[in-house]
Amino acid sequence: MSELRPVLNQLNLVVRDMEAAFSFYRLLGLDIPTDAARRSGGHHAEVELPNGFVLEFDSSALAKIYNANAREPRGGGCVIGFALPSREAVDRLFAKLTAAGHAACQPPYDAFWGARYAVVADPDGNQVSLMSPLDPTRRSAPPEL
What pLDDT, in 10s, does the model give residues 16-75? Predict the structure, then answer.
């Protein structure tokens, strides 16, 4: 008998301010329709990404209805990763997001695994990473922990 294997197909972000979240993720480059939240009374929206993954946004009020233990958003527990087409794209998008007032968590740098990597905070404090394709010629040993 085979066991069921879960497939990660969506991420649901519980947010304090839907419009602030939409503004950040639009600036990041996601295509979020302008009437996305209005369709659900202002409490839910979802975006299907090109790879089929679904990013959902729920207000904290809605989350408290479907999750008895829902807490107010405070971010920082995970890193939401976005792939970019080039090393230069990482630098450009990081500069665009931080120029718009979003907090820099990790400025762009050449990571030991061979990618250009940066991290910014979304309006709820979630860490959002920006990563270029891996370049094996730029790999190095990881730092000692």
Answer: 999 999 999 999 999 998 888 777 788 889 899 999 999 999 988 888 888 888 787 777
Tell me the domain boundaries of the chain.
1-73, 74-145
The CATH fold of domain 1-73: 2,3-Dihydroxybiphenyl 1,2-Dioxygenase; domain 1 (3.10.180)
Residues contacting residue 137 through CB under 8 Å, at least 6 positions apart: 114
Three-state DSSP at 6 gives coil
CATH architecture of 74-145: Roll (3.10)
Mean pLDDT of the chain: 90
How is residue 68 written in tokens? 């008895």
Report the largest interatomic distance among the alpha carbons of the chain, rounded to a whole angstrom.
54
The pLDDT of residue 2 is: 61
